[in-house]
Design goal:
Elements (H helix, E strand, L loop, with lengths): L13 E6 L4 H14 L3 E5 L6 H7 L3 H5 L2 E3 L2 H5 L4 E5 L9 E3 H10 L6 E5 L8 H4 L4 E4 L11 H17 L22 H17 L8 H13 L5 H15 L15 H6 L2
Parallel strand pairs: 1-2, 1-6, 2-3, 4-6, 4-7, 5-7
């Protein structure tokens, strides 16, 4: 990281989260990638301790590993963040992905007070559907040929480098209007609070009979993807809960007709 230069982003606003990494060398190499690009906040979800092999692979990035925070699960690791970008190597039907360039542009458009997470999944299995729900946005890294995915540490480096390069060159941060979608003017809520709001909305939908065993997984995925993209602010939360609580009054519990039946098949037919 160049010194004596005003950077166009705050490296402390970004946390790298590795979900259930299995190979200690990958953890060490990811730490090395962070050291090379000036980032320091490493979070490990589902890891009990950092092994010696990780320190050996980290070379001069031992300080990144020493300060890394270990969490029992992904929601805990992302709880205090405002926005989470998840890397994915394969298309997910309910979780559309940005390109890497689009993700970088959006990350750089947030004010420096925003706490952003960059999420990377297990080396073999990637991110589960449940883990994808923790993200606000997904992105994919382009690659040539038919190789199924990048090595975990390589994916971390490829994601961090454009952020570092833009800062090192003094490139002006894009305005909110120039980003793929406008960022909220108000600060987003912590991810744990956003997830609680989405959970409350799903609970209301279940009480109304809209959410049931047949469509539960699909509707849950869609709800987390849709509301996650909001980077929900306090105003968003208050409005959404007011709408859904008001709407709940027209459901079966109040003697109304209730919600129409909904299925995954119907959602596809609507485009």
């Amino acid at each position: 990281m160049p010194t004596g230069r005003k950077l166009s982003y705050n490296a402390r606003m970004i946390a790298v989260i590795l979900a259930r990494p299995e190979n200690p060398e990958n953890i060490g190499l990811a730490a090395r990638a962070m050291k090379n690009t000036g980032f320091r906040d490493l979070r490990l979800a589902g890891v009990r301790r950092i092994r010696v092999k990780a320190f050996a692979a980290a070379v001069h990035a031992a300080d990144i590993l020493e300060s890394a925070r270990l969490f029992p699960d992904l929601p805990s690791a992302a709880a205090d963040l405002h926005v989470v970008f998840a890397a994915t190597a394969r298309p997910r039907s309910n979780f559309p992905a940005l390109t890497l360039d689009e993700a970088v542009a959006r990350i750089r458009s947030y004010p420096s007070s925003t706490r952003i997470g960059l999420l990377f999944g297990n080396e073999r299995t990637g991110l589960t559907t449940e883990e994808m729900r923790t993200s606000s946005f997904r992105f994919s890294i382009p690659q040539a040929g038919r190789q199924p995915s990048y090595n975990l540490a390589s994916a971390v480096l490829l994601t961090l480098f454009p952020l570092f390069a833009a800062a090192a060159s003094g490139t002006t941060r894009p305005s909110a209007s120039a980003s793929p979608a406008a960022v909220p003017a108000d600060p987003p809520l912590a991810r744990a609070t956003q997830d609680a709001v989405i959970g409350r909305i799903l609970s209301i939908l279940e009480d109304r009979g809209f959410l049931h065993d047949t469509n539960r997984r699909h509707v849950t995925d869609v709800a987390f993807e849709l509301f996650g993209r909001l980077a929900m602010t306090a105003k968003d939360r208050n409005l959404l809960l007011a709408i859904f609580h008001k709407g709940a009054g027209a459901g079966p519990a109040s003697g109304g007709r209730g919600a129409p039946a909904y299925s995954r098949k119907e959602s596809r037919s609507r485009g």
